[in-house]
Amino acid sequence: MAEFISLYSGSSGNSSVVRCGEHYLIVDMGKGVRTTTAALKALGLAVSDCDGILVTHEHSDHVKGLSTFLKKNPLPVYGAAATLDFLDVNGIVPAACELHELEGREEDVGAFGVRAFPTSHDVPCVGYRIHTPDGKTMSIATDLGTLTPPVHEALTGCDLVALESNYDLHMLRSGPYPYYLRARIESTRGHLSNDECAAKLLELIQEGCKKFALCHLSQENNTPSLALQTVFNTLGAAGVVPDRDCIVQAQRRSEVSPALEF
Questions:
Q1: Which CATH architecture has domain 2-261?
Q2: Quick one: which of 10, 73, 137, 202 could link to 253 by a disulfide (CB 3.0–4.6 Å)?
């Protein structure tokens, strides 16, 4: 049995776990080490069973806790070359940790098979397609302003997809953000809206995927209920009934979300 578990997810910090049996991977670590360690402990996960840490990109809401955590737990770190260079140059990864580049093809990461794929963001950024030891597949893609062909390919044929649903367009445009920041978020190198996420989920459901995690919701420009309602409206218009035809779960901002089995 494989599980996807978000430890915390949102504009203030992101981290998740992909677990299968006794083995697991950590994806990002965007809050302090105490928060992440407490979440792992609550799940009964020993650091010694972690096969590695996958890093999507260099922004602080994805790497803030890495340095302190790795000083005590020198796990191997995986990511795109540009991201690993940033972590190395800025002293975020201690010298005792191994750095492994992931780009373009599937590589073994402990018991898992992992392939990085590029996402469209304002710094070098990737998502991950992960094969578990029991033959299941999931993909995670956050921090992307548009759904490019490599993203479409990576999300197709998965048992579970964790996809960004960052903002509601009305909330963003009527909110307190200055124009330049709104423009950045809406751009093709920014973030994915609820409407864009919902349309992609419908496409993936029609292709056979049944389980979804909505990730990286903005605290200022979104709510879990609004993100879910946008998805449900899109699915309902196509005759898809949530909880009967699929499972869609919005991930919690500051606490561990319920595990999604896949």
A1: 4-Layer Sandwich (3.60)
A2: 10
